[in-house]
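Students often ask what a holo structure prediction actually looks like on paper. The answer is less mysterious than it sounds. You provide the chain, you provide the ligand, and the output is a string of discrete structure tokens encoding the 3D arrangement of the protein together with glutamine.
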Amino acid sequence: MAELVQEYLDQIRAEHLGNTGGALADYIPELARVDPSALGLSLSLADGYIYESGDFTTEFTIQSVSKPFTYALALDRIGQQAVDAKIGVEPSGEAFNEISVDKATDRPKNPMINAGAIAAVSLIPGTSADDRFAQLHEFYSAFAGRRLGVDHDVYASEKATGSRNRAIAYMLQSFGVLDGDPEEILDVYFRQCAIKVTSTDLARMAATLARGGVEPRSGRRVTSAAVVQRTLSVMVTCGMYDAAGDWVSAVGMPAKSGVGGGITAVLPGQLGIGVYSPLLDDKGHSVRGVEVCRSMSASLGLHFLSVTRESRSTIRAAYDARPGVRVYELHGDLLFAGTEQVLRNIEREYDDFDVAILEVSRVDDIDATARRMLAGMREFLNVAGREGLLVDPDDTLRVAGVPNSTARVFGTLDDALLAAESAVAARRNSDG
Ligand code: GLN
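The corresponding structure tokens follow.
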């Protein structure tokens, strides 16, 4: 039944594939040479389960999507107080490469613009550029759960052409924000921008943030929950630069974009999204990346201010009530991520039952996405030669306007069990 979610993803990708608006970054030749039509989309759930669609194996440079991770590393290594002394957390409302500091404090306004990102590099304790980069490289790789590569051509080009970033670094030095040699710090910054990722890496890195710093597949803690909380906070307010307000309103997920065409978005506690599409708008965001995130948020109900409730522990109990009859008791609020878990559990087990009874009388609230997904599940079970029964005394699952054609709905578990017994008996008879 994972294919139900897979279909959503493929559908969303297909909807946006025809949008060829925007332009490739061309400040260095390497970025202007990539395939403009690529569109990769990946979704990692909080347990590490991944959905992928399109060009999800294509590697591209992480560019500014690196900034939250370097900021997190600085926080991790020297603590929030020391980082706050050098980098603010206020949205700048300016372009990412603005040569500016906060007028009142003389610090970069936030770590998501280049000035703040370069300052963040300088805060990583290290004996040399290589040492700093090695720490950063390892940290990003731990978030992704695999060793990431580096695009040496992009690094060389960034370094050869980075006058504006040089201007920023020397300006920061003049304000006393940068300790150390600006050229050495810039070298690390250029290398960090050239780290190679796929949309799936970005989804996995986002999922590690969604899990409060624990990489879902290994269960390994990469950084503390406090570091993640601070990092996600600045992603909310500053991650999309001068488009931050529009992004939070329309998409409602902490996110970061980069001129390589990547966007990463985090739904805390639930999931991480990675998108790759290299055609950019005039603010340097992936045009289709933004559109895909908007669609996913709207159609799957992912806005973080509408998902303030517990929605993960939705299976309260699962047990075999009779031979061939498995009961799944759900509770809490059913939203996308929780329902996805339910579907995957039932899919894993459907070889072991003839009839599944979904007991939803303890479900408090359910959104339209979850209703559609559960309706799809009933069809899936029927196609697989199983039966799905529903105990739904309050009619919580009824989709307005859609008759419950394939489901049989009962007011109590006992009634459903009686029906399940005769369904199992009928199946056994016809089999035997
Ligand atoms: N390497 C680019 C720069 O520093 C990254 C910018 C971005 O992705 N927004 O200018």
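The chain has a mean pLDDT of 91.
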